[in-house]
Amino acid sequence: MAAGATVAVERGLGALAHFPDEAYATAGATLVDDASAALSGADLVLCVQAPAPDVLATLREGAAIIGQLQPEGDPARAEAIRSRGLVAFPLERLPRTTRAQAMDVLSSQAGMAGYKAVLIAAQLAPRFFPMLTTAAGTIRPSKVLVIGAGVAGLQAVATARRLGAQVECFDVRPETREQIESLGGRFLDLGVSAAGEGGYARALTEEERAEQQRRLGEHLRGIDAIVCTAAVPGRPAPRIITASMVEGMAPGSVIVDLAAETGGNCELTRPGETIDAGGVTVAGPLNLASSGALHASEMFARNAFNFASLLVSEGALAFDWEDELLAKTVWPPREG
Question: Whole-model pTM above 0.85?
Answer without folding.
Answer: yes
